[in-house]
Design a protein that fits this description.
This protein has 250 residues and is of the alpha/beta class. 46% of the residues lie in helices and 14% in strands. It has a single domain (3-241), classed as Rossmann fold, CATH 3.40.50. The protein has nine helices and seven strands, in the order βαβαβαβαβααβαααβ.
């Protein structure tokens, strides 16, 4: 399969801050991009208008990625209209932070279903496309906190750590089929999710813990994702790429 025939990329959580940057980077690299979003998201039309004003024309699809049946139905529609998927970026994610003693089962289940179950639910829908094409790229967006843990994030850290276990195992299974599977683990980025963190927490706790002394930009992570999605990354699989400003210590 040649680079010119690599047509379709799907980005879950594609209308979020990091998802948007990834969609733009993949489009800049010549891929057609479909951004998945939560069904009923009222911001999607405004988001599409913003992208069009910036010169990007994305397709979007509302799919509950935490629901396997919804993924089956959504991807049947997607494939009928757009064809097979050759690049998948699993970027959907939520937080429901609380200390473990205060965390409810609902908080736990919501994060694990959206962040981790979704990786199975969505990847399962595209894997046969990639096998048939003889080429594929699967990129799972985890987190620095999946590597080192974080206070109040037993659910989130567990979900993100689980993503890389998925990556390593699937990479072994697909290594002989010209399909690579990798994890990208960003640190704290300038996104809406981090914007919800109180400013004093960012200034007094997060930034002092980042050796480079600043938040990362979504475009910096998107550049790494773009490389991993390219034909030039054919010898990279089963890896976890930290992009966190030097924030390695636990």
């Amino acid at each position: 399969m040649t680079s010119t025939s690599l047509k379709l990329a799907v980005v879950t959580g594609g209308t979020g801050g990091l998802g948007e940057a990834i969609c733009r980077r993949l489009a800049d690299d010549g891929l057609s991009v479909i951004a998945l979003h939560t069904p009923g998201n009222q911001r999607v039309q405004a988001w599409l208008k913003t992208q069009q004003d910036a010169g990007y024309r994305f397709a979007t699809l509302g799919v509950d990625v935490a629901d396997f049946s919804a993924c089956e139905q959504g991807f049947a529609t997607l494939r009928a209209h757009h064809g097979p998927v050759s690049v998948l970026v699993n970027c959907a994610g939520i937080t429901r932070d609380a200390s473990f003693r205060k965390m409810t089962f609902t908080d736990w289940q919501a994060v694990l279903r959206t962040n981790l179950d979704s990786v199975f639910n969505v990847t399962k829908q595209v894997i046969e496309d990639m096998v048939t094409l003889g080429w594929g790229r699967i990129i799972n967006i985890a987190s620095v906190n999946g590597q080192r843990g974080a206070h109040g994030q037993t659910n989130y850290a567990a979900s993100k750590a689980g993503m890389h276990g998925f990556t390593k195992s699937l990479a072994l299974e697909l290594a002989g089929k010209n399909i690579t599977v990798n994890t990208v683990s960003p640190g704290y980025l300038r996104t809406r999710m981090v914007a919800q963190v109180p400013a004093e927490v960012v200034q007094n706790r997060i930034l002092p813990d980042i050796p480079l002394g600043r938040l990362g930009e979504p475009s910096e992570v998107a550049a790494l994702v773009g490389h991993l999605a390219s034909p030039q990354a054919a010898f990279i699989t089963g890896a976890d790429f930290s992009i966190n400003g030097g924030q390695y210590r636990s």
